[in-house]
Amino acid sequence: MSRGAIFHHFGDKEMLFLALVDREARRIAVMAGRRDAVGLMREMLADAGAGDGHGGLELWWEISHRLRTEDGFRTAWATHAEAVTGAITRRLEHQRGAGRVRSDVPVRALALYLQLICEGLVSQLADVPASDELHAVLDFVTDSLR
Fold first, then answer.
1. Residue 24 class from Cβ within 10 Å (0-12 exposed, 13-18 middle, 19+ buried)?
2. Which of 11, 24, 76, 126 is 20 to 30 Å apart from 61, CA to CA?
3. pTM for this structure?
4. Residue 61 in domain
């Protein structure tokens, strides 16, 4: 698409960014409903280590920055965050029912734990490339859920 066509559909860079945020949040919520959260983080690591830039992490870095600095964005993000948390929670409940997730910790606490790990991973990948050590951390997270 030409630059003019992009701005015809989105108006300005902010609207384009918000459309990307909406699309990515919906994609993550759908994926979280189908796969475990650690698997999604492993995909992030694989994408980041693929040698073609950061595998789309730039969008997540910008989301993280805006969540810390813009009250309006934080409020708008709340709906997306709840959808992602809901999908992760439902997946954990399903895994708990199948005996694959520990039962001594509330499912919502496990969902928050996974979100914190993911946010830390995104931050780490801003400074340090994907590595075997990060895969070992995700192995530890998987073990901690059992």
1. middle
2. 11
3. 0.79
4. yes
- In this prediction, residue 116 carries a pLDDT of 92
Max distance between CA atoms of the chain, in angstroms, equals 55
Q: Which of 122, 138, 119, 145 is nearest to 39 (CA)?
A: 138
Report the chain's terminal Cα–Cα distance, integer Å. Answer: 47
Q: Give a yes or no: residue 130 inside a domain.
A: yes
Highest mean pLDDT, choosing among 11-25, 35-49, 57-71, 105-119 = 105-119
Residue 11 lies in a domain: no
- Helical packing angle, 107-127 and 57-69, nearest 10°: 110
Mean pLDDT over 77-89 rounds to 89
Give me the number of domains the chain comprises: 1
Q: With contact defined as beta carbons under 8 Å apart, do 8 and 85 qualify?
A: no
Supply the CATH number for residue 114's domain: 1.10.357.10
Domain residues for the domain of 36 are 17-145
User: What's the rounded Cα separation, in Å, for the pair 15 and 5?
Assistant: 14
Rounded to whole angstroms, the Cα distance separating 43 from 71 reads 30
